[in-house]
Amino acid sequence: MSRHSYPALTRRMFILGSGAALGTSALPMALRAAVPADSAMAVVAFDGDALLAAGSNLIRSEDNGKSWTALPVPAAILGLATHPAQPGHLFAGLASGGVVLSQDGGRSWETRSRGLAEGEVDAVAVAAGQPDMFYAAVRGDGLWKSEDAGGNWSLAIDRPWLEDAERDPLALASVDLATGMGGIWIYAGTPAGLTRVPDCFCRWQDVQPGDAMDALVAGDTPPSEAPLPRSEPVRALASALSAPETLYAALPSGVWTSRDGGVVWSHVAQGSASAVAVHPADEKRLIAALDGVLKLSRDGGANWTTLAVA
Amino acid sequence: MTRKLIIIASATVTSLVAIAALAQQQDHDASAEGLTVLGEPVTMEEIAVGRQLYAESCASCHGANLEGQADWKRRLDNGRMPAPPHDETGHTWHHSDQDLFTITKNGVEAVVPGYESDMPAFEGTLDDAEIRAVLAYIKSTWPERQRTFQAKVTANDEDRS
What we know:
The complex is a heterodimer.
Chain A: H1 9-26, E1 36-37, E2 43-47, E3 50-54, E4 58-61, E5 69-71, E6 77-81, E7 90-94, E8 99-102, E9 110-111, E10 121-127, E11 130-138, E12 142-146, E13 154-158, E14 161-162, E15 165-166, E16 171-178, E17 184-190, E18 193-198, H2 212-218, E19 236-240, E20 243-251, E21 254-258, E22 265-270, E23 273-279, E24 282-290, E25 292-297, E26 305-306
Chain B: H1 2-25, E1 31-37, E2 40-43, H2 44-57, H3 59-62, H4 97-106, H5 128-140, H6 144-160
Antiparallel strand pairs in B: 1-2
Helix pairs in contact in B: 2-5, 4-5
């Protein structure tokens, strides 16, 4: 089912409205307050060692958050993805619709939306093993893919169906774990929890404990499960390229982590989390937006330091 | 000029003979181009049986030419997915022989627990040999790339179990 009209104005206006506040605070370099990251701060990412945080604005730090540069964006950014094989390449989904690519770390942008459906792009991802394979979730429409870094887009599959309704992915992550179908998984966070689809796009499905069916058949105790809290939206998702079974998720209750591809989750940070990203080469190094501020962790989320503009 | 023509002419004769021999060899129980289902070689006869069974049991949803339901990447109003193509434009060739067999016999839920789908389970309608024949027919329509990919998926699946 595709949608033809959508009452998205409230959310978008909210993002733009609070983004204006971010713009003023991110630009002057003399600010001493913590870097504000309220709902306007929709996404965070690593570009190699550089830190990125984006919403109505984009800020970039080359020194672990000690100093920040504000960079122009074509429109408010809802989804942001990078790949270590393409340093300086930022792939972003826009609140105004469409996707853009920067090849210079966010200084300039070009539109890469040919063939893509119209509508807000809530989430984007770059395939773990194929830096030219891009995915984009178009609000009210479905999951799209491009095999040539955004040159051309085609529909991959409709939106996931969870709890009796179609749900918009709010977050996407390419997770380099084998599906048994000759490819890897794409995980999606939605307003109704976590789901995933193989990259052959045969069907959206729940995360299942790997050997649950075998265990049932053999009469053994099935492996334990500890899913994310069902009632909460999954606003951001990150899979560590260096250890793909390690996942992080940002929820209103905080940051959660899984060490087994999403079967067993544990709660590592309290507070309302709106964004989380993991370093491409170090699965313990995180950046998150928690309770409206940016925070860094170097130990998988056990300890956090609040980032401030010096 | 003349010599070249002669070479071409005799080459044509040779290949015609080769084709005739091949056709004879593929009659009835001869195996079909190295194709297997669940590890067993597929015969031309099996493919013919499978083609017939496909037309009777699968074509109504998956299309007479394996093209799938219209707009098959979009959900139906009931929230379920339409029947995908079984030719190379679909994703059937991403599944191992065992998964294809299980899905056909017991439905999609048998490989994705809890999944709701309009794909019927054919257990009780088709016996195992008939399911095998339908899959043999479907596989026989795939181009080389899809066959090779699916053979690898099947081999990996066998390694796991």
